[in-house]
Amino acid sequence: MKFTGANILSVDQFNRDAIEHIFRIADLMEPYAHRRKRTRVLDGAILGNLFFEPSTRTRVSFGTAFNLLGGEVRETTGMESSALAKGESLYDTARVLSSYSDVIAMRHPKSGAVAEFAEGSRVPVINGGDGANEHPTQALLDLYTIEKELAHHGSTIDGMHLCIVGDLKYGRTVHSLSKLLCMFKQVNITLVSPPELGMPTSIVDLLESAGHKVTQVSELSGSMDADIVYQTRIQQERFTNLDEAEQYRGRFRLNSEIYTKHYKPNTVIMHPLPRDSRAEANELDNDLNQNPNLAIFRQADNGVLIRMALFAATLGVEHLVSRY
Ligand code: CP
């Protein structure tokens, strides 16, 4: 895969070499992200950071990553503050904003909207999440986290057992992560969700075609024997009827007691965040906050490294970072 000048719209664009390339650039970004070194490699460059749907981590980490490379960030947040609210097309918005920026990161509530926007853009566009469709940069940082966490236990993505729990129908992060896992070998995947919120059949088919063992269950039972448990939030914003979302809230909690009962003592706990901390939901309890296997904040930190790597690669400066 050639990164320079490319849009990053879907994990379908990646093969295993491309993933490896981005992960090794991300490794090189660590001293810059942790302020031990400085670079101005993107001095004078502008990121258009367009978030038409709420975000904390993705929006801020895109901006932070760009700043850490020496570039500047122009933000648009919320549909109501953009001319999209007056009926302007994504194409026109892209044509205009792409002449103000060197690269654009974008989140939009509609599936396919970021790809539609990219058709009008004259600079690379990076998908920060489009509806229930994809969240490719989250999937890359999730996989990077899995690689790093498993390395501490002397194991690898190939051959691991991953348990994904919660709303697998609307959770775009697990769609993108599952597609990336198709490039690895002999992954054992247990999907835990109510049947109505199950992983789309098309993605289960992809996982099985890749030779992975996929087990779908509606409850945790016995020992899950998982290397990683990936909890997700009920994506209430994707339901047409909020009462429907309500009936699933709280069905898939993870707290210290449930963790000890169903998982190994070193099972790594992940969640893309935000976690819904309201008592009626609480899919990942605060009583796990001191558990060393809780990787959620290391996972969020890795978002900066991966997004720095993607900016460096799409703008073709990955070999120049240490020189400026
Ligand atoms: N994981 C994630 O996409 O978080 P935000 O919605 O805060 O960006």
From TrEMBL:
The name this protein goes by in its record: Aspartate carbamoyltransferase
InterPro entries tied to this protein: Asp/Orn_carbamoyltranf_P-bd, Asp/Orn_carbamoylTrfase, Asp/Orn_carbamoylTrfase_sf, Asp_carbamoyltransf, Asp_carbamoyltransf_Asp/Orn-bd
Entry similarity comment: Belongs to the aspartate/ornithine carbamoyltransferase superfamily. ATCase family.
Ranges where the Aspartate/ornithine carbamoyltransferase carbamoyl-P binding domain occurs: 7-147
UniProt keyword Transferase present: yes
Presence of keyword Zinc: no
PROSITE patterns: CARBAMOYLTRANSFERASE (PS00097)
Annotated Aspartate/ornithine carbamoyltransferase Asp/Orn-binding domain residues: 159-313
Recorded GO CC terms: cytosol
This protein's UniProt keywords: Pyrimidine biosynthesis, Transferase
Top EC class of this enzyme: transferase
Metabolic or biological pathway: Pyrimidine metabolism; UMP biosynthesis via de novo pathway; (S)-dihydroorotate from bicarbonate: step 2/3
